[in-house]
Write a structure and sequence with these properties.
The protein is α/β, with parallel strands linked by helices. It has 10 helices and 9 strands.
């Protein structure tokens, strides 16, 4: 069993980007492409191209899925993965040349933890977020800063604890973001040893389903995310979030309206 397996989620014609990303890995690194097809079928020419690319790479597995939702794609990867650890990726990232070596070093340094998160950079340079400079163990607050492409998890842990992504959350779900934060929170609730390791492993655009917060759709999702993660204690995080992001939110909409949208999301979620 290889130590790290890469699981790339892709959608419709984005599969060509996923294939290109998969090919950028060393042939010793196993890669699984989970390709969601939502009322879309590749043409014969497109299918032939994909097959030619994949037949030339023994380390890449391709699986078409007739489902919708990023969390469903992640869950398929959990069930199909063959590596000791799974690294969840999107099809629009670029990897650092030594990314797998960095991950394997972190696994060794941390003595086989259950969850590790890393840093991502921006294509134009610099870090995607204001990351901490020192290694630390995750807590109930730090998990809110995690993005899915930064996450590496131990397969045996999540399988033994029956932990999966909540399919109500994430891109094309009922709530459009937060699936990775909920996933790590569930891991920690099950006793996972979860760490942040201060090293960059890939580059990703600054805007994703969980970023660019000042709109009603994101507010609705955030309210549900906090309730799903923390139960009634999540109300504290709702208020804390509005306070910390006050300037960013108020530049676009009133903080009171934003809070109301968060509470609507909160009320619709049945835990």
């Amino acid at each position: 069993m290889r130590r790290v397996e890469v699981a790339i989620a892709t959608y419709n014609q984005r599969v060509f980007s996923a294939v290109s990303l998969a090919q950028s890995f060393n042939e010793k690194t196993p890669v699984l492409i989970a390709h969601q097809l939502d009322d879309y079928a590749l043409s014969a020419r497109e299918t032939a191209f994909v097959r030619r690319q994949l037949d030339a790479a023994a380390n890449i597995r391709y699986r078409p899925l007739h489902t919708r939702g990023l969390a469903k794609s992640r869950n398929f990867a959990i069930g199909a993965a063959e590596g000791e650890y799974i690294w969840f990726l999107d099809d629009d990232v670029t990897i650092e040349p030594d990314c797998v070596e960095i991950i394997e070093k972190a696994i060794k340094d941390l003595r086989n933890p259950d969850v590790i998160t890393f840093q991502t950079g921006k294509p134009e340079g610099g870090k995607r977020k204001n990351y901490k400079s020192l290694l630390h163990e995750h807590n109930w607050r730090s998990v809110l800063r995690i993005s899915s492409v930064e996450v590496v998890v131990k397969s045996s842990f999540i399988l033994s604890e029956h932990i999966v992504f909540d399919e109500r959350f994430g891109l094309n779900g009922q709530y459009g973001s937060g699936e990775e934060n909920i996933f790590i929170c569930d891991c920690m609730n099950a006793g996972a040893r979860a760490y942040y390791y201060p090293a960059e492993i890939c580059k990703h655009a600054a805007v994703s389903s969980g970023m660019g917060i000042a709109n009603e759709t994101v507010a609705f999702s955030k309210g549900a995310v906090f309730k799903r993660m923390y139960g009634n204690y999540g109300l504290f995080f709702v208020l804390l979030f509005c306070r910390r992001k006050y300037e960013e939110i108020s530049a676009t909409m009133s903080i009171f309206k934003y809070l109301l949208c968060m509470m609507k999301g909160w009320k619709t979620l049945k835990r």
